Amino acid sequence: MKTAKSNIMTLEQFKDKHYGKRGTARRDDLEAGYESFRIGALIHEARLEKGLTQQELAEKVGTTKSYISKLENNVKEVRLSTLQKIVELGLGGQLELSIKL
């Protein structure tokens, strides 16, 4: 019996094929964009888990609802100091960072 060739590839294979290997400019841009998107998604998820509106979170942090919305929707990048305020003051959490080499 003949088996069909699978056209399924992993996400890593897809990125290699369409954006180049890690270390190329196009791939680095893709990865950086994903990290910004991910931070916004994490803020959004944590805010909902805490039962806060964007306005309530903004007031706790000392910023605007518009700014929180832009972060959550990947329209604006967050500064590290602001992210720390959002996590600690706004959400009552703890920010943990790591560097992978």
Automatic annotation (TrEMBL):
The segment(s) forming the HTH cro/C1-type domain are 43-89
The record, for Gene3D superfamilies, names: lambda repressor-like DNA-binding domains
Q: What keywords is this UniProt entry annotated with?
A: DNA-binding
Q: Does the keyword Zinc apply?
A: no
Q: Which SUPFAM superfamilies did the record assign?
A: lambda repressor-like DNA-binding domains
What parts of the sequence cross the membrane? Answer: none
Name the Pfam families for this protein: HTH_3 (PF01381)
- Which PANTHER family does this chain map to? HTH-TYPE TRANSCRIPTIONAL REGULATOR, METHYLPHOSPHONATE SYNTHASE
Q: What protein am I looking at? A: HTH cro/C1-type domain-containing protein
